[in-house]
Design goal:
This protein has 20 helices and 21 strands. By secondary structure, the chain is an alpha/beta fold. Strands 1, 2, 3, 5, 11, 12 and 13 form a seven-stranded mixed β-sheet that branches. It has a six-stranded mixed β-sheet with strand order 16-17-15-14-20-21. Strands 4-7 form a two-stranded antiparallel ribbon. The protein is globular. Bound molecules: D-xylulose.
Length: about 525
């Protein structure tokens, strides 16, 4: 049976997952390994994968760290007991929005990589910028405003690209580079996202982007899945000739270059276009048709799901990206997730068991109390002045406050995801707080959907491995995605958490409030 390799080059680590898949019933994960950049490659000087800066708004990482990590991970794979002769295709996911800048020698350097020398010692000479701005950067507000105004306003940008001009997106980052380092921009021949940069290293030539990751740049037209000329022109001169092509997701774009075949005795496996981590996670947690939504309950809470049509969030806080299935995905992120749950828990002197008990004994609907926990400025809805907002009668017991908080969070997530126009009968929940059944019960009651818990530890890398398999086994897409991912993205518990109809009716009323 063939093997498929998926990487996930995230902010803090590189993960590799190998699956066995032949489109039949026998399938599964046969290898998984992660390396944490700060620990394995400390000489790059990163903290949590990011280079320390004086200006807190600036977030950059060294691309050579990702290059070296790929080399180390391939060595690990080659040293494993896996029969890598069976490796048929490779793809990957990467943190979205980060941009990598390469010079005119880069095409030759990628083509001529010498298998006797480490990758990073050769690729350094291909960069026109030593650092890559990443998704945590928030230093481009002025450039976002310039670009938005020049294309005809935020609504125009939103309507075409799926997001308003967004600080962490690659387009505004590119404009900042062009305006602040014009000579270095001039010396730049190709601008990659982290995903297409990594794919280029594997294929030994400049790789294209897929529409999912390209939609996180404020440069691609969602309808046509092509670069949107007005945005290119207003972002930086000569940008069209510096961007990679866009090809459909799960497309084979070449074969593993001589460097990898000679250095690690790997076969000439197909290299499949890489994508962003969120789109790959969508596949990795089984969200392959409209009607299933995902909720990731972590430091921040994220609501995401497939959409057949590219509907956009006119309020400007949600994003629409492409999905690897060829559809679209909506994503809404609330910053005050576990952060707020932890604050309320500590304020009432509760441990997590106590927090769960409080949720259990509290009354559904909290007797009309609603708590909006904006301890930090909030992205969804946009709240610039932080502070907790309370409505209804004052809390008498800790459980009043705990329930009002979790209900407020879940109602807010539902309300601010309505723009996706997706009615979900099923929610796949992931993230640390998804191990708490009482929180998931509130989610089920508020949404009216059945909630399944999924283990998403390696979901992006798994999604990428599934895309690699898809490109090799079923490039025409004859097998339904549901069937293609079954056996991989399966719920942890056999039975879901079901909504209570009476409580759901109550929340429908409260949502109006
Ligand atoms: C999504 C986003 C992050 C990065 C992190 O818009 O900025 O989720 O993809 O990896």
């Amino acid at each position: 049976m063939p093997f498929y390799l998926g990487f996930d080059c995230s902010t803090q680590s590189l993960t590799a997952v190998v699956i066995a898949h032949d489109a039949g019933r026998e399938r599964g994960i046969v290898f998984a390994s992660s390396l944490v950049f700060d620990e394995t490659l400390p000489h790059h000087g990163t903290r949590s994968g990011v280079l320390p800066q004086d200006d807190p708004a600036v977030a950059v990482s060294p691309p050579l760290m990702w290059v070296e990590a790929l080399d180390v991970m391939m060595e690990r794979l080659a040293g494993s007991r896996l029969d890598l002769g069976r490796l048929a295709a490779i793809s990957g996911a990467a943190q979205q929005h980060g941009s990598v800048y390469l010079n005119r020698s880069s095409a030759g350097i990628l083509r001529e990589l010498d298998a006797s020398r480490p990758l990073a010692s050769q690729v350094g000479a291909a960069l026109s910028r030593e650092v890559a701005p990443i998704w945590m950067d928030s230093s481009t507000a002025a450039y976002c405003a310039e670009i938005a105004e020049a294309v005809g306003g935020d609504d125009e940008m939103l309507g075409h690209t799926g997001s308003r001009a967004t600080e962490r997106f690659a387009g505004p980052q590119i404009r900042k580079f062009f305006r602040e380092s014009p000579a270095a921009y001039e010396a730049t021949a190709v601008i990659h996202l982290v995903s297409s940069f990594c794919a280029s290293l594997l294929a030994g030539r400049h790789a294209p982007l897929d529409p999912c990751d390209a939609s996180g740049m404020n440069l691609m037209d969602l309808e046509t899945r092509r670069w949107w000329p007005p945005a290119l022109d207003r972002t930086a001169p000569g940008l069209a000739s510096r961007l990679p092509a866009i090809v459909p997701s799960c497309t084979a774009i070449g074969t593993l270059s001589r460097y990898w075949r000679e250095r690690y005795r790997l076969p000439p496996a197909k290299v499949v276009v890489w994508s962003g981590d969120n789109p790959c996670s969508l596949v990795g947690v089984g969200l392959v048709r409209e009607g299933i939504l995902g909720v990731s309950l972590g430091t921040s809470d994220t609501f995401f799901g497939p959409m057949r049509e590219p509907r956009v969030d006119r309020s400007g806080s949600g994003h629409v990206f492409g999905a690897p299935t060829g559809d679209f995905m909506g994503l809404t992120c609330a910053r005050n997730g576990s952060l707020a749950r932890d604050r309320v828990r500590r304020e009432h002197g509760l441990d997590w068991d106590g927090f769960s008990r409080a949720l259990e004994i509290g009354v559904g609907g909290s007797k009309g109390r609603i708590l909006l926990p904006w301890y930090e400025p909030e992205t969804t809805p946009r709240v610039l002045t932080p502070g907790v907002r309370r409505f209804g009668p004052p809390a008498e017991q800790p459980e009043d406050e705990v329930r009002a908080l979790v209900e407020g969070q879940m109602m807010s997530l539902m309300l601010h995801s309505q723009w996706m126009g997706v009615s979900a009968d099923r929610i796949h929940a992931t993230g640390g707080a998804a191990s708490n059944p009482q929180i998931l019960q509130v989610l089920a009651d508020v949404s009216g959907a059945e909630v399944y818990r999924l283990d998403a530890a390696h979901s992006a890398a798994l999604g990428a491995a599934l895309c690699a398999a898809r490109a090799d086994l079923d490039p025409e897409g004859r097998i339904g995605w549901d069937e293609f991912v079954s056996g991989f993205a399966e719920p942890v518990d056999a039975s879901p958490i079901r909504p209570d109809p009476a409580r759901h009716a109550l929340y429908e009323e409260l949502l109006k409030v």
